[in-house]
Design brief:
Largest sheet: 9 strands, mixed
Shape: globular
CATH superfamily: Ribokinase
Helix content: 25-40%
CATH topology: UDP-N-acetylmuramoyl-L-alanine:D-glutamate ligase
Number of helices: 9
Structural class: alpha/beta
């Protein structure tokens, strides 16, 4: 059973500064680093390291070939990643980090926003009934991919992050698994009790609500509510925790686990990830989980 991950691939440019740049100001940075990034990239890496059969659906510019190579090295199928030769840049983030550790981020979607419906159709042309589509909200053609997947008898898991107007317009009623955090669930429902509101609005979906350090709430259609506490670990960096969690849920479900076992597995994976610096380097392998 294959997981087809429609997701963003980014280059993160990180600049360390004494303070954020002010209007009209030019300052020198104290340090610079370039990293692989993007929610989709992180999820495909986590899926591959957990032993899943994962194909990444996405796009990069000619400057992003090294990111494709990195995914392939971890074991992901990269044959569905388009390398655009028309001058479109790879998606990227310009990140300022001040001496207090706060950040300001500018996102350019680049090739992530150039994924066409035709690309999605081609990528899913060999998908089998029972395969999974995993998606988030950092690329184009997400709604089309969800509809295409359901038409092919696939199952759909989605985390509509980052939350924005585009996320609110997605056909979330097609989701088999909807994963959201507290902020996202509140934006989706405009309700105080967002978890119950999501269960009522999407009765055919398994709802998974992540609560940060307080763990997870989840419920399958017609089932009771289960909770899973966060594991006690020393937190170093939470950057990729959500992506790691989403991927681990998908892995466990494709292997036949029920939602309770899937959430416990995902909590363990995410708890490991936050004990390490960086996004891609923090994502654990199956044996560690």
């Amino acid at each position: 059973m294959k997981i087809h991950n429609l997701g963003s691939i980014n280059i993160d440019f990180v600049y360390s500064l004494e303070h954020f740049v002010k209007p009209g100001e030019t300052i020198a940075c104290a340090g610079f680093a370039k990293f692989a990034g993007g929610k989709g990239f992180n999820q495909s890496t986590a899926l591959a390291r957990a032993g899943a059969d994962v194909a990444h659906i996405g796009a990069v510019g000619s400057d992003g070939a090294w990111l494709v190579d990195a995914l392939a090295k971890d074991g992901a199928d990269v044959s569905r990643i388009s390398v655009l030769g028309d001058g479109t840049p790879t998606g990227h983030a310009i990140i300022q980090v001040d001496k207090q550790g706060q950040n300001c981020i500018i996102i350019e979607s680049g090739a992530n926003g150039a994924i066409t419906e035709a690309m999605v159709d081609a990528a899913l042309s060999n998908a089998a009934p029972g395969d999974w589509l995993l998606a988030q909200n950092e690329t184009s053609s997400i709604a089309h991919a969800m509809r295409c997947a359901k038409a092919r008898g696939m199952r759909v898991a989605i985390n509509p992050a980052p939350m924005n107007a585009a996320a609110l317009s997605l056909p979330l009623e097609l989701a088999d698994v909807l994963i959201v955090n507290e902020t996202e669930s509140a934006e989706l429902t405009k309700c105080e009790n967002a978890f119950d509101a999501l269960r009522e609005r999407y009765p055919n979906a398994t709802i998974v609500l992540t609560l940060g350090g307080d763990g997870v709430m989840a419920a399958a259609p017609g089932g009771g509510v289960l909770t899973c506490g966060a594991l006690p670990v020393e937190v170093v960096d939470t950057t990729a925790a959500g992506d790691c969690f989403n991927a681990a849920v998908a892995v466990a479900l494709t292997e036949g686990s029920d939602i309770h076992a899937a959430v416990r597995f995902a909590c363990a994976a995410a708890s490991l990830s936050v004990t390490r610096l960086g996004a891609q380097p923090s994502l654990p392998k199956r044996g560690e989980v």
